[in-house]
Amino acid sequence: MRYGLDIGGTKIEIVVFDRDFKVIDTARVATPSDNYPHFIQTICQLVSQRDRQYSCIGSVGIGLPGVQETDTSKQISSNIPCLTGQYVARDLEKELKRKVNIDNDSRCFALCEALTGAGQGNGRVFAAVLGTGVGGGLVLDGKLYRGASGIAGEWGHMPISAHLVNQYGLFVKQCNCGLYGCLEHYISGTGLSNLCQHFLEEDLQAEQLLQRITDKDAQALHVYQVFIDILCSGFANLQLTYDVDIIVLGGGLSNIKRLYADLQQRLPHFLFKGIQAVSIVPAQFGDSSGVRGAALLAN
Ligand SMILES: [Zn+2]
To answer: What is the pTM (predicted TM-score) of this model?
Structure first.
């Protein structure tokens, strides 16, 4: 059996997969986010209960928010406060007496979509998450590319183009990461709300903005077009850096139906003349990509 665990700020989901990667069992518990020993104990209980239930020693893969050091898997940053600075994989391996593979939740999503989802059959896949934040992962020939220090794929913290800031009179704010003008401030779910606040002086969610566009509101359409241009400039940077075969989108904003046609139409404006824009497609497994990718880490 393979156990995939998707650990979020509020809940931990465990899914048991059989040898053919079929879902056998799934369970959710609350994340003990401010007590590290309790956090470790909770995961060990989830795993050992299933070992007993299925009379096996299942392999464990875990998707965690934040950034882990490549060599040591020390948790550098996390939205689960008690994990920062901890060696989660090492501590779990000691308790569970088996290998525990941990990676960033966006990379688990990338692995799932590249190997079994919308990116399947392509040698070079970038999977981008447009959720509360912006994350991503690069999968080359079926393997995750983590980089020298574990930050490969963190494209949400690339800076916005100065040209777009000038063209649209955009704000530039300091990000939690310490840098200024990170793409995440414009193209995440929160980012799109920031753009609505900036141009319309209203706090709108994506669905509300889209409804206004359907109702022929020209200002709402302008906000959406600015959003598409910023997103395209980010994807153009990814294409120029990694030159992948396909980009797969996940996260809440990837559910915007018109997004894909709009991106494909605008992306060539952000690339050299003569370069064909990369295909951008929605994820196949949606919310379950993270836990499936975590199980794919397990070996
Ligand atoms: Zn940043």
So the answer is: 0.90
